[in-house]
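Re: that backbone. Tokens:
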């Protein structure tokens, strides 16, 4: 734990089920239905749909 209270670690291995991989062996976001924990509200949230294009959509805000 660092001085800010953050825990820092190293990812040693990642495993996924073959059913969420596309033809190139990459995770297909349309097949993967991740959830995350929201500690502020003590709930789980579903993650999913595309909301924009990185390095493109934000450029219009400059």
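Recovered sequence:
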């Amino acid at each position: 734990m660092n001085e800010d209270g953050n825990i820092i670690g190293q990812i040693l291995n990642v495993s996924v089920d073959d059913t969420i991989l596309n033809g190139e062996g990459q995770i297909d976001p349309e097949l993967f239905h991740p959830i995350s924990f929201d500690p502020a509200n003590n709930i789980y949230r579903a993650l999913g749909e595309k909301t924009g294009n990185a390095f493109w959509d934000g450029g219009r805000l400059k």
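DSSP finds no helices and two strands in the chain. The first strand starts at residue 35 and ends at 38.
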